[in-house]
What does this fold into?
Amino acid sequence: MPLTWRFLDTIEALVAALWPARWRGATGWAFLMPALLLVGVLVIGLGYMLEYSLHELNLATYRLRDEYALTNYATFLNRPVYGTVLWRTVLGSVLVTGITLLLAFPYAYVLVRTRVPWVRKALLVTLFLPFFIGQVVRAYGWLIVLGREGLVNSLLTGLGLPAQDLLFHFPAVIFGLVQYMLPFAILLIVPAITAIPEDMERASESLGAPWPATFRHVVLPMAWPGLIGAGVVVFTLTMTDFAMPEILGGGTTDFFASAIYDSFFQISNPGLGAALSMVLVTLGSLIVAAVFALAGPGTLGIRGART
Amino acid sequence: MTDQLSKRVVLWGLVWFSIVTLSLPTVIIIGASFTSGDIIRFPPEGFSLRWYWELWQLSDFTNALLRTLYVAVICTLISLPVGTLAALATVRYRLRFRRSIQVYLLLPFTIPLVVSGLSMMILFGEMRILGQLWPVGLGICIINLPFMIWSVSASVNAIDPDLENAAMNCGAPPVQTFLTVTLPAVMPGVITGGLLSFILAFNEFLVSLFLTDSRTVTLPVQIYNSIRSIITPDLAAVSVLYILIALIAVWLLDRLVGLEIFLRSK
It folds into this structure.
């Protein structure tokens, strides 16, 4: 096909003219530049956020004062409501992480170990379908399941039991979050389980270990990096989540993200909201660093690196 | 033998609980969308396509749908080349400061979404571009960039570098090597990443909430606002649209690269 050849030759010549061979060493950086610039937009935005957090709101004009002050951070420390919300957020995140890992681990294990192709396919589809459906739609589904006239209550009344107020309480939020995090956790644990040779388990079992012992002493330790990676991702995503607590909690069980949102849009104090954002970023990073220091970086540490 | 039996019972018990938890909202939404009644309840009253018809009539929702598609297309068009090149650069080229670059490129994933969304709201506000639609696509592209880079770099890791060397040795110039050897080899990752970008952008809620106003509201934000006011069955009909698109995405992913690709160990 001479036409394609000529076309390719032209492009080749064009590229050679625009990017001479002696620049070849910098090609990697040229490839990287667009991504660095895009993330740069976010970094500049964060810079603005930090700057905002250092200015107090002038209540007369509803604008941020020009001089620098730490008033917003002092407000965070002095108002007990922020402590309460933060405590609820951290407690909720610990609960969600625990329950999610407990459910995700057997799912990932069965997914990897099953020998029946259609079972594997069905488990994969069950996993990916909600993964591709956004939080708002899934929260809406839970509203129908748990609502006053919802599925659970019609089952209860059908059995002659009194209807329950399930929505707008802490457990509903936890449950919604677990469902949201489950696909992430399973996908992060799966590679760790794939890496365990099945012979290891057989060896343990043929030596007479009952399966819980095999799990405890063989499978869990070998899957540990995957569990740590999944746990950290689930914890940080939960700790910063907005939609589930907002929709399923109905304003009664706000998480920290709701407090940030309210500072910006309800009490119109961007300085305070920015300070709370900085607190959330710092706290999240500290917790992740602490987990990595205690338990090792897990699978996240080597992500993308060549081994 | 009873040992194996109890293992099956415990494992499958937990797996079934997960299956129900994962699928229940989807199944319920589909059921509820066909109700003929005026309120959402379960089991639904009667069967009709009434709410789908009403939805079609609501210009709010159809406009929001068009805007969401526009935003998702912009996001995918930006993240495809940017993410592919960045993945090739971080894996194939010997760059200095590689660890720092990786940490930097993961920032959109490690910074909480609320904070990223509000930061970009402030920045775009200062740049006077808030209220237009393309910055929403750009913002969503930025926060999902790590997913794109991650799916492509998984494929890049799997290429044999000797393939490119062989092409070069046989006289292929750099662009031809790139187009005929490198790009086809990373295609599965590019397809997965592109699909993921589109779906994530189509579903993105929190960042859109901050970057849109009443004139540029996208579908997830519109659904959220409606949930906060009155819950009518037309919401179930919109949600079914989301479920259908997710089904198509899962099917495409399975046909193009195979879902089993996610079961590989790294």
Notes: Confidence is low (pLDDT under 50) at residues 301-307 of chain A. The domain at 83-301 of chain A is CATH 1.10.3720.10 (MetI-like fold).
